[in-house]
Amino acid sequence: MKSKLSHTSALTAAIVIGAGAIPASAQDFDWKAHEGDTVTFLANNNPIANAILKYTDDFEAKTGITLKVDSYQEQQMRQRLLTVLNARSDEVDVFMTLPSREGRQFAAAGWYADLTPFTQDSVAPKYQYDDLGKALVDAATFDGTLTGIPLNIEGPVLYYRTDLFQSCDIQPPSSIADIEAAAEALKGCEAASGITPFASRGLKPALPYTFSNFLHNMGGEYMADGKSNLCSVEGKVALESYASLLRDYGPPGVVNYSFYQLTSLYREGRSAMSFQSSNEFPSVMEGGARLKDTAIIPLPAGDGGSHPTAIGWALAVSQFSENPDAAWYFIQWATSPQMQAKLALEGIAPPRASASDDEAYKAWLAEEPLRQEWQKALDDLAKNGTSEVGYPIVQNPESREYIGQAVDDILLGTATVEEACATADEQLNALIERE
Q1: 387 vs 10, 73, 140, 310, 331, CA distance in Å?
Q2: Residues near 288 by Cβ (< 8 Å), separated by ≥ 6?
Q3: Is 94 helix (H, G, I), strand (E, B) or coil?
Q4: Percentage of the chain with pLDDT > 70?
Q5: Are residue 148 and residue 243 in the same domain, yes or no?
Q6: Is 378 part of any domain?
């Protein structure tokens, strides 16, 4: 459990406010220093990027910099990014990155520009770099290289329909076993007829984000004594539990489900429980249909306790950018206290303690009880979370493919739990040995 405890301690520090002094360079900072330049931003088409890009005109007016945006769904964005970085191309200046996923890999490849000098020598007045959550900054730092600036804090939470639970006489789940019992009851309840009892990620490279919470709550860890540990007792229980929930109670074609499909399904009232990103809260609530009949909680504890997944997206500058200084201006603007306070009002959980304490944000939370439940769940993520999603190795993205394949093989019935975990452990041990 050592890795979990260290992650928990780090994430607790994420909510501590820094009180650093304004660097001397801030006195001479000029937002128009790169007027006329163009910055190309490769964006993941998720709620964070969509919220930021609503204010593009503000950025361009403030800096005189033209922002060129290339936006794709997450998998396509990743494919595009790998193509550009492998080619050492200058086509992209700024990109969205998940340090918990590709941070080690991209840092080892030399693909990130080090942002440390910028944070020391080119900081705008009132930027408050030290106000950013320390754990998220640390999570984006590899061998002394600061690879990105945090945009948010997030993790998977359980959205569930209070009206259906009431109609079907089901109590709110307080354990993972309760989720399985609730799904079974919903499946046989007339009031929930035609509604998917439980939905979560089934897309192979995407599902470790949600599966990891099951694994940790069951008491499992990805590695033990330097080897893959999926075939541990706890690992096999987690694999079977997650796969059987999706197989027996999930939507048709769930192996193709990531956040986009989950959000649509729940928002439209076609799933009763949806275990997915807290970051999808604004999209889930779009239109207001789910605002009055939903509850939000962290994944209930398993035999191993409660160890929620807590991560954050960051903005990075490509090592191959020809406009790193102008790119840094975009990052400063997008991650400033002023912008993050605005984003918080759109349901983007702020990585800055000052933003979460903002009076306008507090008033926004007070408008709807469900927003307060969402924030309470996020507080739990920050306090108790682990950022371990997949294997803590350079080849973390590839490790997720093997985790996802093991779950999908069990889900589809092409392998038993024993067969699936054994195959995955063999592949993952070979991956670990390449380190």
Answers
A1: 9, 23, 11, 5, 23
A2: none
A3: strand
A4: 94
A5: no
A6: no
Query: On the CB side of 289, how many CA atoms lie within 13 Å of its CA?
Result: 12
pLDDT, one tens digit per residue, over 300-346 is 999 999 999 989 999 999 999 999 999 999 999 999 999 999 999 98
Range of the domain at 318: 2-153+311-373
pLDDT of 19 above 50: no
Beta pairing class for 196-199 and 271-277: parallel
CATH number where 93 lies: 3.40.190.10
339, two tokens: 């912008």
Structure tokens at 199: 């939905």
Question: Do 54 and 144 reside in the same domain of the chain?
Answer: yes
Domain boundary among 347, 373, 399: 373
**Complete DSSP assignment for 274-286:** EEEEGGGHHHHTT
DSSP-assigned letter for residue 90: S
Instruction: For residues 172 and 159, give the distance between their C-alpha atoms in angstroms, rounded to a whole number.
Output: 11
For tokens 């048709």, name the residue.
252
User: Could you report the per-residue pLDDT of 56-114, keeping only the tens digit for each?
Assistant: 999 999 999 999 999 999 989 999 999 999 999 999 999 999 999 999 999 999 999 99
C-alpha span between 218 and 377 (Å, rounded): 19
Give this prediction's pTM.
0.82
Residues 304 and 272 in one domain: yes
Residue 381 lies in a domain: no
